C-alpha cells in the first residue's frame, strides 16, 4: 500500500516549495509481543506477557506507550531498570531525535538493552496506524493523534489475541496498553477515546515497589512557587531571536560563566575578540555555562569592566524566598564595579542575555547542601563546577545522600525561581573517598570509563595465545636482535622498543619497534569501536583508564622483556652522523631482551665496565639522539617546560604519600628523539601514499598576540623575546639566563608554553600542505605512530601504513575522508579532556597531600598582579595566588583597615612595593602552604608569605594572633610546625 | 560516513518505508500515443516518464554512409518535473550526458544488423523526477521500442543501488535518498544474458562493497524485467485480442 506525503518547505532563498514524497504503508510490521497470534514476527519477542511491576493505578499486566514529552523529560526514570515492556513509536523516536540528540542516544541505548523489553514499533509505516495529516492540523497535533491511534490499535490488537477459549481457560489476566503522557490536551483526548492513560509522575508514584524512583522524576513546577514573583526578565521566543539576529539587533554566542564571580560571565561572539561581558543576575538571565544564548549589546555608556572580585555565593536554603537585602547587596556590588570601570577606562562591550538559543545542560556532579529543616524533601544541590549555579531538587533520601557525591540534572528554570529546578540522577559514593573523587573527575571530563562490555571482550584473542607458523611467515623475524625497551618505572603498557647495531659497511641500523595493536584490533568490530570512542588512555594519579582491555594493553601488545611479541618496525640505515640513508617499514616478531627504566638505561650507558650488546646499542643510540636533537634545535624546535610531578601513592588507601618532580635524564630524550624520528618518517610515508585520508598531527603557529604577556614579562627583566619564527623564539629563550636565578629560564619557558596553541589531529585532504606544519617540533609534517596501546590515532596510522606496504588490507572507512575527519574530531576532544582530567587528578592529590599539613616552601613569583602575586612552587609544580589586598566585601576588610600594611602597585615595571620590600616577577619567595577545608566542596590551598618578612602581613612565627589578611585562618596547625619555628 | 544521513533505520526500513531490496511501485503502459511508431509511459514511484520512438526510417544526410543503424536519442526533463522549476528542459549538460548514456545502452540491445543505413529516434520526456531518472527513462524507452516493433536482443533495463551506512545495499534509489548523500550506482543490463550495457557511479565504492552493490542493482534489473515482460504480454493480449492473439500467449 502506498500513500503520498505532501508538505511545503522554505528554501534558503525564501522560495516556498512543495515537496511530495512517497510513503509506503506495510502489512508486515510485527507488534513485537509474544501474546500476539496474528503478526508475522521476524524478531525475538521484545514484549512479554510476564509482568511483575505492581502499579496501584493499573492492576493488571500492561504495556506502556510513551509520549514524546515523557521520553524527553523523564529519561532518567527510563534509564532506571524498572520499567519494562515499553513500546516506543517511531513517531516519538523521530520527535526525540529532532529535539535532542543526546536524549535520542540515551533512549537508543535503552532500546538496545534486550533485558529491558523496549520495542520500537514502526507505526508510521504500518497500514493500520498511519495518521494522515488533516487540513489545519499542526504537526504536533498530528503526532499526538498518531500516538493515540497506535495505542488504541495495540490495545485492540492484543485484546483480539486474548479472547480465545484456551486463553480464558489459562486464567491469565488480559494485558492492556497504557499511554503515558504529560500533555494535558493529549490526555483529555485519549480519555475521550477510551485509552488507558496516565501522566508519568502519576504512574511512577503508583509503583509501590519502587518508591525512590519518584526522585528521578523531572518536575516542571514546584508546588510552593506559584505565588512567587518573577525574578528574571522573560526570554524571547525562538522566532523573535531569529528575527533579531537577522536584523543584527541581537548577537549569538556561547555563554561562559565566570569561575570567580557568580554574577559575571562572558559570551563569545564571533565579531568580538574578547567576547561580551555580562554582569548581574538579571543580565545573566538564567543562562548556564555552555548555553548558546542571544544577547543584546548595552549602549556604550553602560559598558563595564570585568570586576576582579572573587564573589562566591553564600549558602541559601531551599525555602528562602528571595530577600530584598540580597538583591540590594548585588546592586551595590554592580554599582561599585561600574564606578570602578569608569575610572579604569578598561571598559569592554557589555550586554545582557535576552534569550536562549540552545541549552547545553548536562548532568552535574556535586553534593547536597545540608538543610536547616528536617524532613523536607526540597533541597539545594551544590555542583562541583563553580561555573554552574545551585540547583533545586526534590528528594526523599536526603539523609542518605548527605555525605555523598551525587549527580543531578537540570529540568527547567522558571522566571520566578532563583535557581534552576532539577532532579536527582544517581549517587557516586561517599564524599572524600578516592574512588568517588576519581569518578567525579572522570564524569566531569566526559571520560568513558565503564567496564568493557562482554561484546567488546569477545573480540579479544583467546588465551592461551600463541604465535602460529603463518604469523612467522608473514612477518620479519627480528627475535635475534638486541632489542630493548626504556620506559618510566612501573610502566606495564610498553609500546615501544629500540635497537641499534653496526652494519658491515660501517653504517648503523636503527630500529624502532612499536607494539602491533592493529593486529589484534580489527576494524569495525565492537572492540575497535569502543577504542575509537575512548580515543586515548587516561592517566590519573594511581589509576589508569585503559583505551583497550587490559589483556591487550598490559599483556599481548605490551613489549615486555624476554617474550615474543608482534611489532610494527620502522628501521633506518644511518651513517655515523645520523643521516638517514634508507628507511623501511615492516611487521615483525621481536623478543625484547630487556625492559628497562630510564634510570637503569642511564646507568648502563654510563657504566663503562659494561660492554654487552645492549650497552653498546644504547650508547650508539644515545650518541645519535644527541645529533638528532641538535639538528632539530637548529631548525627552530622549541624546548618548552611545564612543571611535572609524580605522586608516590599508597597502594592500600590510594592516598598520596610523597611528591617528586619528574626527572629528566639523557635516556628520556634519547627515546623521545627516536620516537619523533619514527613519527616523522611514518607521517611522510602515509601522507605520500594517502594524500586524501592520512591521519596527521599539526601544531599551528600561535598568533602574535598570544605572546604579549611573555614579551612584557621578559621586558621587565631586560630581555627581548623574538617571536617571528620558531627559530628566533628558540634563540631568544636560550638567552634568557640570569646568573642569580637559576630557575629563571625554566619559568620563561613555562610562560612560553602557555602561549602555545593546542596541537591537533587532522586529515591530510582537509588542509593545504603548508598548514601541516608542527610548530613546536619544527617539523613540516608529523603524526602519532609510536603509542598505539594508549592512543587510537596511532592505530589508525598503523592501519594506513600497513595498507600502504601491503601487510594488511584496506577497508572502506579507512579511506573515507569524512569518517576520518569525524574520528579526528573525537580524538582531539578526548585528548584535551584526558589532559584536563589528568591535571584535575594531580590537583586533587595535591589537596589530599596537604590535608592536615602546613609547609613552608620555596617559590617564585610568576606574575605580579594588581592585588596579588602569582606564585609558582617548583617542588609541587603548583601555582597559586598570594593575595595582597582582600575582597571588598569580605569580613577581613575591616581587619585590614586597621593594619598598616599597604602595597603599592606600579604600572610601569609591574612591581608591588611595601615599605622597602619590592616584589618583581620571577623573584624568589618563601610561602606557607595549607589547606582551607572550610568549604567541603571546594577545598583550596592557601598561600601565605613567609619570606621576605613584612611586619603585619607575613606569617608570624608561632603566634596565633598574626594578622592574616590574605586568607581565612588555617583550620589546623600541627604541633610539628610550631616547634619548627 | 560523517554528515551522511542514515538511509536505513534500525528497524530495517528506508525513509519511505521500503525494505532494502524492494523496488518502488511500478506502473507502465504501452502505446499511449498514436502519432509515433511506438510509445510508452512508465511510473516508478514518483518518477514518471514518457517515451516515444520513430523509426526505423531512412537516415538523413551524411549518416547514410555507415552501414550501422543510427540511434538518435533525446532526453528532456519537463520544467515542472522537480520541486524547484527547471529553466532549461533539454540541452543542458546533464541531459546531454543522459542522452549519450541512453544511446549506449540501447545500441547494446537493438539488433543493429537488421537495420542498415536506417535511423531510430527515441524521445524521452521526464514528467516528474523523483530519483533514478536515467534508469526509468531507459526502461520506458525499452517499452517504446518494443511497442514500435523494433527487434531487440532482449529487454534492456536499468536499476540503481546505493549503500546504507551499515553497509547494506539498497535497491532503486529515490530522490530523497540521492540527495541525502548516499553513493549511487546505476546499472543498465541485459538481465538474461547477464551482460552489463552501462554502469555509472556517483562516487567511489570500496572494492569490498562494489560487488554486492552491483549484484543488488542486477537483481533489481531482473525484477524490473519480469514486470516489464508481464506488461508487454498483457499489452499484446489486449491489442491482439481482435485477431485472436490472446490464445497464443
TrEMBL record, chain A:
**Region Disordered, residue ranges:** 957-981
Q: Taking every annotated instance into account, which residue ranges of this chain make up the domain PIN? A: 62-188
Give residue ranges for domain RNB. 475-807
Record keywords: Acetylation, Cytoplasm, Endonuclease, Exonuclease, Exosome, Hydrolase, Magnesium, Manganese, Nuclease, Nucleus, Phosphoprotein, RNA-binding, rRNA processing
Give this protein's Gene Ontology molecular function annotations.
Answer: 3'-5'-RNA exonuclease activity; endonuclease activity; RNA binding
In Gene Ontology terms, what is a biological process of this protein?
Answer: rRNA catabolic process
Q: Please, which domain of life does this record's source organism belong to?
A: Eukaryota
Basic residues composition bias: which ranges? Answer: 972-981
**Stretches assigned to coiled coil:** none
Q: Main subcellular localization, coarse class?
A: cytoplasm
For this protein, the record's InterPro entries field holds:
Dis3_CSD2, NA-bd_OB-fold, PIN-like_dom_sf, PIN_dom, RNase_II/R, RNase_II/R_CS, RNR_Ribonuclease, Rrp44_CSD1
Cofactor section: Mg(2+); Mn(2+)
- Where does this protein reside within or beyond the cell? Cytoplasm; Nucleus, Nucleolus; Nucleus, Nucleoplasm
Question: Which Gene Ontology cellular-component terms appear in the entry?
Answer: cytoplasmic exosome (RNase complex); nuclear exosome (RNase complex); nucleolus; nucleoplasm
* Family in the record: Belongs to the RNR ribonuclease family.
Q: Spell out the subunit comment.
A: Component of the RNA exosome complex; within the complex interacts with EXOSC4, EXOSC7 and EXOSC9 of the exosome core complex (Exo-9). The catalytically inactive RNA exosome core complex (Exo-9) associates with the catalytic subunit EXOSC10/RRP6. Exo-9 may associate with DIS3 to form the nucleolar exosome complex, or DIS3L to form the cytoplasmic exosome complex. Exo-9 is formed by a hexameric base ring consisting of the heterodimers EXOSC4-EXOSC9, EXOSC5-EXOSC8 and EXOSC6-EXOSC7, and a cap ring consisting of EXOSC1, EXOSC2 and EXOSC3; DIS3 associates with the base ring of Exo-9.
- PANTHER family cross-referenced by the UniProt entry: EXOSOME COMPLEX EXONUCLEASE RRP44, RIBONUCLEASE
* Protein name in the entry: Exosome complex exonuclease RRP44
From TrEMBL, chain B:
The record's GO CC annotations read: cytoplasmic exosome (RNase complex); nuclear exosome (RNase complex); nucleolus
Matching entries from InterPro entries are given as: ExoRNase_PH_dom1, ExoRNase_PH_dom2, ExoRNase_PH_dom2_sf, PNPase/RNase_PH_dom_sf, Ribosomal_Su5_D2-typ_SF, RNase_PH
Residues annotated as domain Exoribonuclease phosphorolytic: 22-150, 155-219
Taking the record's annotation, the residue ranges forming a coiled coil are none
Give the GO molecular function terms.
RNA binding
GO biological-process terms attached to the record: nuclear mRNA surveillance; poly(A)-dependent snoRNA 3'-end processing; rRNA catabolic process; U4 snRNA 3'-end processing
Q: Organism's domain of life?
A: Eukaryota
The UniProt entry, under Pfam families, shows:
RNase_PH, RNase_PH_C
User: What's this protein's family per the entry?
Assistant: Belongs to the RNase PH family.
Tell me the PANTHER family matching this sequence.
EXOSOME COMPLEX COMPONENT, EXOSOME COMPLEX COMPONENT RRP41
Q: What is this protein called?
A: Exosome complex component RRP41
- Gene name on record? LOC115626166
